[in-house]
Amino acid sequence: MTRGNQRELARAKNQKKQKEMDKNKRADGLTVEQRKLRDAEVMREKQKKKQEDSEVKKGQTCK
Q1: Mean pLDDT in the chain?
Q2: Are 38 and 30 in contact (CB under 8 A)?
Q3: Is the Cα dihedral 15, 17, 22, 27 positive or negative?
Q4: What are the residue boundaries of the structural domains of the chain, listed by start?
Q5: Cα gap 11→5, rounded to integer Å
Q6: Distance (Å, rounded) from C-alpha 32 to C-alpha 26?
Q7: Distance of alpha carbon 52 from alpha carbon 37, whole angstroms
Q8: Is the entire prediction scored with pTM above 0.85?
Q9: Which InterPro entries does UniProt cross-reference here (predicted)?
Q10: What is the mean pLDDT of residues 44-54?
Q11: How far is CA 17 from CA 5, 12, 21, 25, 46, in A?
């Protein structure tokens, strides 16, 4: 039941894949706190835009 070097090759391939995944995950170089602040700001901007759009739409339907 020997598998030769199949296990070693699979391990090396998986390690390479994991390195690529880790590299892509942290490409922005931000800490957790910085990322949270950035995401919160983006969400506030989206909410503000959505509210403005709904007010404009409401104003158009009332006329």
Answers
A1: 86
A2: yes
A3: positive
A4: 6-62
A5: 10
A6: 11
A7: 23
A8: no
A9: SERF-like_N (IPR007513), SERF1/2-like (IPR040211)
A10: 95
A11: 18, 9, 6, 12, 35
Report the sign of the C-alpha dihedral through residues 18, 25, 34, 36, in that order. Answer: negative
The amino acid at 21: M
Length of the chain, in residues: 63
Report the pLDDT averaged over residues 28-47.
91
Between 26 and 53, the more confident residue is 53
User: Which residue, among 53, 33, 20, has the nearest Cα to 61 in the 3D structure?
Assistant: 53
